[in-house]
Model the fold of this input.
Amino acid sequence: DALEGDATPGPRFLSARLARDLAVRGKRETYRDAMLDRSRAETRITPLEGRGSHDLAAHARADALLRIPAGGESLAEGDAVSYLPLEG
Done:
């Protein structure tokens, strides 16, 4: 992006509200497969259940990657979170 002259290179994170509680494990920033719901005034995001990085079925259903910040604790339904869209 920077080589093409983009003034703000890098991924474009968007915001959504978490659709269900999510237990957070580990101290590193991670990304979780998720599904977006844009049928309401505010976008909601639901983390998908998966069995790890080898779970191709979960990856195929995802239309977003939910960003889980480093050192975070459990996230509650309705919390504002960041995500990377996978469509387009």
